Amino acid sequence: MNRRGKLLGLAAAAAVIAAAPMARASSHREALAILNEPCADNTDFYAWVSPGAHDKLYLIGNYNPLHEPGQGNQGLRACDGYRYDFHIGKGASLEDVVVYSITFHKSVPVDEPPGPGDPLGGGNELLYQISGSQEKFRVERFVPSTGVRTVLGTGLHTAPNNHGPQTDRLVYGLGPFEGYDSGNPESREVGLYKPLNFAQTFVQNLSNGGRVWTGQAADPYYLDEKGIFDVLNLSRDGLFGIPGARSSPGEDVFDGFNLWSIALEIPTSEIFRDGIPHNGVFVPGSTDSLLRMWFSISRREKEIVDATDVITGYRYEGPFKQVGRQGNPLFDAGVVGVSRQTLYLRSKPSKDVTNFGADILFPILVRDADNLGIYRALGIDPEAAGLFGPRNDIINALNLGRPIPVADGFTGDVITLDAAIGNDVVPDGVLEGGYPNGRQLIGGPTPRAEHRDVSDLLISLIVAGDPLAGAGDGVNEQDDDYLTEFPFVPPAHQGLFEGHGAPRP
Question: What pTM was computed for the model?
Answer without folding.
Answer: 0.90
